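hey so u asked for the seq, here:
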Amino acid sequence: MKKIFPLLVVLIFATSGTVIQARNLWAFLSYSSFNSPEGPYIETYLTVAANSVKFVKKENGKYQATVNILMTFKQGNEIKAFKKYELNSSELEDTLNTNFNFIDQQRFAVPNGTYDFEIQLADHNKTATAMPYNQNVVIDFPADKPSFSGIELVKSYAKAAIPGTLTKSGYDLVPYTYNFYPESEPKLIFYSELYGMGKAAGPDQKFLLSYYLESFESNVKLNAYFRAKKESSKEVNVFLTEISIDNLPSGNYNLVLEARDQQNELVASKKIFFQRMNPKAMIGLADLGATEIGNTFAEKITSKDSLKEFINSTYPIGTGLEKAFIRDALKSADVKTMQQFLYSFWVNHDPKNPELAWNLYKAQVYKVEVNFGTPVKKGYQTDRGRVYLQYGPPNTRSTQYNEPSNYPYEIWQYYTLNNNQRNRKFVFYSQDMVTSDFQLLHSDATGEIMNPRWKIDLRNRIYNTLDLQETQVINAWGDMESDYWELPN
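ran it, structure tokens below
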């Protein structure tokens, strides 16, 4: 889960999962790309927390806050699109209740390509200087095959009486700018467009549209959240749909869209990451009772302690529902229930050969125990062990245990993560070399801890600051954390 730092601006790029910060205010940003007859465009969705900005009294006696915004799309040194504007809150009679957000949506016409998207925010009524934050954005709508737009998460929608900024396909869509769904949000609403299906398959030809939730860690499809329907192909097929997540357990997930032709060939797909916090959701043990374990590997494991240990070791790759069982029901489960759960777990993760999948994973659990286990934690319970089991071995692993100013640390780099993230890194550090328990300090991977102050925390044994806005440290002799972050070895 991403860290959110108090009293700071925090921008969440929901498509990539990157978290960045600036001074004094809270903001959340997401974006989606779309296509049109005039060409591709990007929509940005920005939410600002009213209680983090300064309200000033106007001539009419009411109070209003203003945020200065600059958004720029660049390719190299060339600016392809930009907007500089002021975002105003609603006017208030007084400032006793500022527990609300105000939302902004913008559109930028940009052709296919890769862009450096930069945003600067500053509170108009404070003296804090705006600081730039950057994100790579890729626009790719091929002309020769079907493709989905971005997936816009929606807070609410209604038929549009008069078309406006929030209107698409005849509906006013209020964006849901976060990728975090607390218990108070009982449903996930989303909007997307499919382009070119009519051109590829011919007009009014039937095709299958499916949408479902999958575990982010293991990409296991959650069958209870799978839906499919037949559609007729058009040049643009529009989808505005909602999924009940009232019983979806806490965890990391992907929302996945797929389009398949009449031969059941996948012709287009799209996914977006989100997090769910839902403590009330519980796994139903009745479903496990129907699991047949006769003549399976699980039936042969009869030790209650062994079963508990084996099941606990699967936590790093479990779905939200499976993790809920391990957290809440495992302690009181009997031997047969645990056998059924263990077998069901591996059938879900590898239906063709669950026993082989279990044996291969068990070998990896042994490996992380040898390499990352501590006197007080199993290897799979450590941060390094969890990351290793969830994502596999890193492509590069830089280890620095004796730098003059820094705590001992490691930087892991993955060239490809979950098949859709490129060049992702993890920083682990140990404040106590006695136990060798290296904790995850920072990562730029989706769903992981993002800590802009990681260099300061890494050097915290000799350098400390009370300035929560500070994110950089002065280069010190012999310390290589910046070099290894940029070019791990």
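The mean pLDDT is 86. Residues 354-372 form the longest helix (19 residues).
lmk if thats what u needed
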